Amino acid sequence: MRVVIVGGGFGGIRAALNLVNKTGFEVILISKLPYFEYTAALYRSATGRSQRESAIPLSDFFTKARNINIVQDEIVGLDNDARAITGQSGEVYHYDTLIFAVGSVVNYFGINGLRELSYRVRTVSDALALKRHLHDDLTAGHVTERNYVVVGGGATGVELASEFTSYLKKVRLEHGIKTKFNVDLIEAGPSLLASLPTSFTDKINRRLKRLGVKMYFNTAVKAEDAAAIQLPRGSIKSHTVVWSAGLTNNPFFDKYPKLFTTGRGDKVVVNEYLEALPNVYIIGDSAATQYSGLAQTAISDANFVTANLMRQSHHRAAVTYKPKRPIYAIPAGHRWAAVLWGRTRFYGYPGWILRRLADLRLYVSFLPLKKALTIWQSGSETDEACATCQK
Predict the structure, then answer these.
(1) Domain assignment present for 278
(2) pTM strictly above 0.90
(3) DSSP strand E in 178-263: where?
(4) Are residues 176 and 82 in the same domain?
(5) 320: domain CATH number?
(6) Residue 383 has what pLDDT?
């Protein structure tokens, strides 16, 4: 069975790893990038930590694999009748089974100026561009005060706003400057992390206040220009706006409205086996499932689909999909995290330890042990935007 997997993220890598060296399977993994982006670590890469933990070469995952071909390409076409997809390179890839694990893209909701002027942290290059800007902006000469605005009260917004406070203090100290700075977090809804219990998110809210982050709720951004972000009532002067408030499905599926039906959040409707079409599976962020949008869900989806493919190869009946409730671990500043694990909650340093152990567990499940430990330990290394900041 030739299985073509599109996407080199959590779901795509996990699906490929599950099928390598399995008799009867030929695997083609197609990714736009030659490396895997560990998105959970991008906020650290944007605030002075090593990028080694957030950018891992795809070849590192498959050092002993015999039945996989890793291809760097971007899929732009699908011929369902011919069971073939076409890459931007012009190459045509035929499949028996196709797994889409293409993730989501940034949604600016048509707000004027955001696409052109705001920063984002969706990729390694995004994170490094933001880190360089934060450093250069704060250390620019003849500046007495700077405002830094994060838009979006989800996990990424919380992670970034809380890390900004300590990172900017560090840059200021390293350069011996006295520039004042403010960190603002803007959320269109009434609270942080709207899908989680308020009794849990209230602790995160208080943590951000202690760090000095000023929060604006029920405040939808209207526009951004070169010097300020426009709000319903007034504006905030800022040369640095980070947009983390919106994602939407990969636009590939919109090209084929006769093949794919979209539902909640413009995500693709799938059946009880995560199929959108016969032998075409959608996993992770693009599937209209209960916990879609989380790395844990993408991994769980990959495990589910590949387990059924192996059942199929042994002429056994497939099982139906059951969403797996995720564990939420939200970092909020130096060695502090809030963890929601079923009904159990951890805050502060214990939560941070659990979050770092979760990172380690993922690296170990994806990579050889020695390499996993090396990458995990790199999360504590400094990788600054200037040589004089290295410690």
Answers:
(1) yes
(2) yes
(3) 180-186, 213-216, 223-224, 228-230, 235-237, 240-243, 247-249
(4) no
(5) 3.50.50.60
(6) 74
